[in-house]
Amino acid sequence: MNSAQLLFGVLFGSIGLGYFIYGKKQKTVVPFIVGILLMTYSYFIENTLPLVGVGAFLTVLPYFIRL
């Protein structure tokens, strides 16, 4: 794991923590699940470009899907 992957993992993990707390307090499913995914997905992706792509996709997903 290089420093860029570590930086993006921490960045998207902290965004995921925010989504997780927001989803738990507001009792909304999409931010809650996206928060969990953002906090854990960086352990399974080894390349930097897919790491950023998946993180950016998951970050904007609750904006477009409102349940």
Q: What can be said about this structure in brief?
A:
It comes from Acinetobacter rongchengensis. With 67 residues, the chain is mainly alpha-helical.
Give the strand tally.
Answer: 0
- Give the proportion of residues in helices: over 70%
* Number of separate helices: 3
Reading the helices and strands in chain order gives HHH
Q: What value does the average pLDDT take?
A: 94
Low-confidence stretches: none
The separation of the N and C termini measures: 36 Å
What global shape is seen?
A: elongated
Q: Sheet with the most strands?
A: none
Task: Tell me the domain tally.
Answer: 1
Proportion of beta-strand residues: under 5%
| C-alpha-based Rg, rounded | 12 Å
Structural class from helices and strands? mainly alpha
Keywords: Membrane, Transmembrane, Transmembrane helix
Transmembrane segments: 6-22, 51-66
Organism: Acinetobacter rongchengensis
Protein name: Amino acid transport protein
